[in-house]
Task: structure prediction
Amino acid sequence: MQSSKDIGNGLIDGWIVQLRKGALEYCLMLALRRGESYGYEIIQALSEIRDLSVGESTVYPILARLKAEGFLKARLGRSGTGPMRRYFSLTEKGRIRLAMMDAYWPMLSDSIETLKKAAVRAVPGKGRCDNGKD
Amino acid sequence: MQSSKDIGNGLIDGWIVQLRKGALEYCLMLALRRGESYGYEIIQALSEIRDLSVGESTVYPILARLKAEGFLKARLGRSGTGPMRRYFSLTEKGRIRLAMMDAYWPMLSDSIETLKKAAVRAVPGKGRCDNGKD
DNA sequence: CCTTGCTACTTTGCATTGCGTACTACCTAT
DNA sequence: ATAGGTAGTACGCAATGCAAAGTAGCAAGG
Result:
């Protein structure tokens, strides 16, 4: 049990990857909401949360992209135990974006809940317009 | 206001696209949970739910793939108003998968909630290991 | 007859993204 | 110098959402 994503079998394996695509970007920004942090620490922090374990090659590109887009800013700092760390923190633009994400995420959840309850207006009876023809 | 996805500005525009990856697949299977339906109807049903509006070129490929993977089965039927309809419905395999998705989705939501509350173990004080150097 | 418009579905092509693998660079300890 | 953990980069692949355009059947209007 290393990759916490094998819930059932491999049936939804690929789906989870796709589902997390945009969610991870949100998670990284959430991880920086309280204050600055660096890649390695974020990776470890996320790995402690169920289903959010990620690798370096997932986190660093996202951090780099968010920085390039102006949502994060970076600062170098000594680590004492290894190479220089790159501390990331949210910019104001990033905080605005995070606020929008915070607003959008529950909307999506809500829409899905709505979908769960509301049937696609398909007739509840049974087939109505084919083999019965006429 | 046609594309319900412009919440703020174009700031999270691309993010939403990524976030919906995988989620749409879930939505389509949810739409078929009650019974069979066809692409066009699903599109219209989803378009009535906030933030779930999709186009044909999004839905049909997903339906085709789900069918190819054995999660859906299809059946042709006359429509009376246009060309033949392809009615999709969940297979048993699809229902199992949908159940796993139903289990996974709240887990992801929950993990994100956890992340919102739990800070990345960064020190709450302030910087601790850089410019102060030694 | 021809055109417009609605329904229903398909195809092509593109841009984005997560992530596995491999690699480099830095620091400390022995 | 060598070994080991830390921090980050680079390359490449496979999926996916989605816009745009095309096809095909049916109905109403000129």
